[in-house]
Amino acid sequence: METHEFNKCLPEILDRLQAVSDTYLESYDEHKAFVYLIAELFETTREDKFQFTDGPKDGGVDFAVKEPQAYTICQCKCPSLDKPLSKPCMYDQAAIDELKVAVDLLSDRTGEYDIKPDIKRLRGDYQRDLASDPEGTRLTATLAILGTLSDQARAAFKSYKAAFQKNGIVLKLVEWQDVCHALHALETPSDVDFEVTLHFDSDSDLLAHKDYCYVLAHACDFYEAFRQHEWNLFEWNVRFQIPNSPVNKRIVSALSKAKTRKLFHHYNNGLLITCRRYRKDTTRKRITLTGPQIVNGCQTVRAICEAYEAMSPEDQQHLRETTRVQVKIIQTTDAEFIGELVISTNDQNPMNPRNLKSNTAEQREIQKLFRNLPAKWFLERKDGEFKSLLTTSTQVRWFRKSDYAVGPRKFRVLDNQELAKAWFSFVGHSHNALRGGIDYFTDGDENGAYTRIFKSIPTPAFWSAFCQPNFAPKEEYFAPGVPSVYQYLLSWGIASYIDQRRVSFKVNRQEAVKRGVRSSALKGDPDTGQCVSTSKEIDEYLSSDLVYFLNTMLNNMREVIIELYSFVFCLKYTECSARFCQDLIATLSRHKQFFESACDANTLVAKQDGKSLLGPIYEFLKDCAQQYYFKYEAEIKAAPRLKSYLAQRGTINRFRAIIPDRNDSTKGYDVEWKKPDRTFLESLPEL
Questions:
Q1: Distance between CA 424 and CA 409 in Å, rounded?
Q2: Residue 140: which residues within 8 A CB-CB, separation 6 or more?
Q3: Angstrom distance (rounded) from CA 616 to CA 680
Q4: Model confidence over 376-394: pLDDT tens digits?
Q5: Are 494 and 565 contacting, i.e. CB atoms less than 8 angstroms apart?
Q6: Which end of the chain has fewer CB atoms surrounding its CB within 10 Å, N or C?
Q7: Least confident piece of the model among 479-488, 571-580, 582-591
Q8: Where are the chain's structural domains?
Q9: What is the pTM of this model?
Q10: How far is the CA of 338 from the CAs of 269, 387, 398, 432, in angstroms?
Q11: C-alpha torsion angle, residues 314, 319, 322, 324 (rounded to 10)
């Protein structure tokens, strides 16, 4: 059974590793990708907290996450995935010992270690905090393996865990089943038709009103509820667990000590739960909730579970007997009211800014415009909104699943955060979007992102200036208002098309290696493409493979390509006005099918057939990227980081300058993405 489940889950894990590579790496490396995947799923990859440390002299620390007085280190083990795995890889005690070395290194006050500077600083910071506040400083060490432990290794892990726990150090284990579970942890359940029972000690612990009540409940009830119902408890919450949150760590710390366990209800703000109905039983000192949803308190519940599972049996018993948590229960199924509750009460941890903007007039209006399209689209204004509406028992007047369905599990749905990034790139800010670090939903951002994206319309003067290679967006190019839904949708559709046309880092490397073997530049079997050359030989070959490098460039300039699409549109059609975008989406037959299919790239063709724009433009831009590479090869290869180089405004403007020149020189080219004896732009259809 385990092997069957592993084989079922492995393809999804491989897909996620490729996606992680696209996000964090400049080329595919399954081991580095696994490190980032573990951080993404179980901790955080925020630049101000996360540090990738894997490599020579890392002291057994592959990544570290640092909060004030809270440290997490992780050792990650991923088997080679070049060949298909038929069953989970088995790891022995050596993996456990490597994690122990990392913990000993950080904990040892006097030892001398041959470690890299990053680990030295981490060790020094931990020792400093430990010396100043031994009770408040917390260290968590995790072993994450894409496989499972042998019986001997598992016994060693339990032994080390118990020994370190005495010193306040927590050891955690993440195996392949945990990775698989985490990939699905945010999936919305099919329903919330279940019950949860909370217990209290005396009548004075329950204060009841008509449609709501307050209760001082047993904390252990929430541990049992999560074990039974897991994320079903949080369907209406705007967010799920915040990994490595300092608030969560303080909660866990309070629960780890006998004194603060007894006073937990004073230290913690408590939970807010909505439900369809509740029943009080004062005789048995319990209250039963039907269809409960924890709309505020996800972090508290997860901290209770985390602390409980790390305790000794004696401490677990003490928690059950003494630890209580404040709970407010509201009997309601009003979706809008619940949404307002969530935003107004979730303030212990920082709220995703887009959720705080989700009920603004412009966000509601834009969502309405998308659902009023001939082929309706659902714009998600807040985290998990579409999935919640798919499964909620509350009837929302304007929502019908069938309006957005294009297949059994495929819908026309898009995220306003992704939309923001695409539109920001489309109107000349691709350099900012590619660099990252922009909060698209915070007022006063130095880039003016929210106003520029959701409250400003590009004027004809903007599009006139945008046609020039050396473009710089200016405030006077925009007028107050909300862009057309067709402008938004076109920019997002282009981003979706690019994502589907890109060659993943892994496939790009595999295909390049096969080319090397078949050309005898690498050693191996020419018939199968199987390579036996060393990693150094492969890397040297890849540095000379033009196709490989061009694909790597394209993978690292997604947002730039979005801007180049709008630049090409302006060169051909003068401007990307609301009318132009509507004509392209609604009247050009292939594109109409593309957007109605939720942007399935298979509905478009890359060749020039008079009915398609996105495919031929993508091929033309690939050709322009090749010309850019030929012209600036030395500069490109000298860049310390490819993505940072591509995100420079000067680099993007030079790309733009190549496009009209390359267009003129394509007139005599016989390629399938343009018409013979015409330039590329002349080949594009009139609208």
A1: 29
A2: 70, 71, 72, 73, 169, 170, 171, 172
A3: 9
A4: 999 998 776 787 667 544 4
A5: yes
A6: N
A7: 582-591
A8: 2-184, 195-345, 353-417, 418-436+454-683
A9: 0.63
A10: 19, 15, 17, 35
A11: 180
Contact indicator for 346, 239 with CB cutoff of 8 Å: yes
Q: Dump strand ranges (E) for 343-471.
A: 378-380, 405-407, 410-411, 413-415, 456-458
Contact status, residue 139 vs residue 126, Cβ threshold 8 Å: yes
The widest CA-to-CA distance across the chain, in whole angstroms, is 90
Token readout for 531 is: 């390579």
What is the structure's pLDDT at 240? 44
Burial of 37 (0-12, 13-18, 19+ CB in 10 A): buried
53 and 116 Cβ atoms separated by less than 8 Å: yes
DSSP string, 539-588: HHHHTT-HHHHHHHHHHT-HHHHHHHHHHHHHHHHS---HHHHHHHHHTS
Residue 673 is which amino acid? W
Residue type, 329: I
Mean pLDDT over residues 438-442, rounded?
85
Question: Are the C-beta atoms of residues 378 and 413 closer than 8 Å to each other?
Answer: yes
Q: How far is CA 372 from CA 11, 155, 464, 591, 600, in A?
A: 37, 60, 30, 18, 21
- Packed helices 485-501 and 614-638: angle between N→C axes, nearest 10 degrees: 60
d(CA 297, CA 271): 5
Distances from the Cα of 154 to the Cαs of 74, 305, 312, in angstroms?
17, 21, 17
Mapping DSSP to helix (H, G, I), strand (E, B) and coil, where does residue 33 land?
Answer: helix
Instruction: Name beta bridge partners: 141.
Output: 73, 171
Tokens standing for 307?
């602390």
